[in-house]
Design a protein that fits this description.
Elements lengths: L3 H8 L4 E5 L5 H10 L3 E5 L3 H8 L10 H9 L2 E4 L10 E4 L14 H10 L7 E5 L7 H11 L9 E5 L18 E5 L2 H12 L5 E4 L2 H31 L4 H8 L23 H11 L5 H11 L1 H15 L8 E5 L14 H11 L3 E5 L23 H5 L3 E4 L8 H7 L3 E3 L10 E3 L1
Parallel strand pairs: 1-2, 1-4, 2-3, 4-5, 5-6, 7-8, 9-10, 9-11, 11-12, 12-13
Antiparallel strand pairs: 6-7
Amino acid sequence: MNSASLLQRINNKEAVIGVFGLGYVGLPLALCFAEANYKVIGFDTDAAKSKQLSEGQTYLTHIHAERIQAAIQGNFSATCDYAQASQLDAIIICVPTPLNKYREPDLSYVTNTVSQLLPYLKAQQILSLESTSYPGTTEELIRPLIESKGFTIGEDYFLVYSPEREDPGNTSYTTKTIPKVCGGETAACLNAGVKLYESIIDTVVPVSSTKTAEMTKLLENIYRAVNIGLVNEMKIVADKMGINIHEVIDAAATKPFGFTKFTPGPGLGGHCIPIDPFYLTWKAREYGIHTRFIELAGEVNRAMPEWVVQKTADALNEHGKAVKGSKILILGLAYKKNVSDSREAPAFEIIAKLKAKGARIDYSDPHIPSFPKKRDYAFDMHSVSLNASSIQNYDCVILITDHDEFDYQLIENSAELIIDTRNRFTANDKIFSA
């Protein structure tokens, strides 16, 4: 057997697409396939998500309900029932790949998903893993599971790795316009993967293997993590020298070659940059390699929430107050502006550290009305509204996430003291850069 029948179903838009994991990666991808007139079934273990989608509602602020409603009225459905996987021609896995408490890869979401799918696998089907992982994951973990069902990879079953490149809230690039890297376990697998993604994405970038595609994703995010670690360390040095690091960065960015602008912040957030580098450092140890450069950047970035807490304590001290007993307002829980994504956001560690020092904490985030459930943090808090009177009640305001919805002039006029981690306020005696 060969891939001809699968490719024909893809080309004729007769293929049924299944997307597993309807989060920040899976949901946009599923909608993209549905909008290209494929029948799409979205799978998620969270029954509340499936219910919301089935009712045409959204749970991601950057994806409008109207888009979901149009997809539901067309070719898209959402479910928790894995038995529906028997209908699928293409399986795309977009589930989380977190770190455990020892900062080692936790691939249980991936392996559990594939294991549950095994009864529904069939010949002339393609499976694509999009979840970020270490080089070798597809070959070493996924391939043996599929082969245990008697399939021959590249002949009657097709296996690829194509890393996600979603950037929630980025209006300049969409799922369709962001180039898509794809690697296959065999040449036939790669051909099938390219055909699948070419049906919805403008540019597909084929690479020689799944390992290459897996390493590509890690390099992209390690590049960012290392450079963010560099500017975070430079921020600390500049602060001690009385230099505005943001002015330095803006000046350096005028160089038309050899410099890429990165900006410091209160710590890393999102699913990718705080986690992905450690997938490579873990795998590298198998080859006897100590990735010192990557791990050093990780240490710098993980230390930034403590830096913010210390700057807050210093600023309060200059105003004759202690952290203990002070009322502090956190602006923004999301890891980046204008989205509701709070995965690995530094705000949670900052809140926990300030609470441990006796501060009384509130937060305001237009995208996160209630404090989300977290593995390490559980606070009964709700977003407070901002007005001159409410802001004046706080001893200190800390800007963590610079959402465009915040009225920065109102905040600056009303706050007694501001810790600015995003360079959004004009310098004056009550603004402390962190």
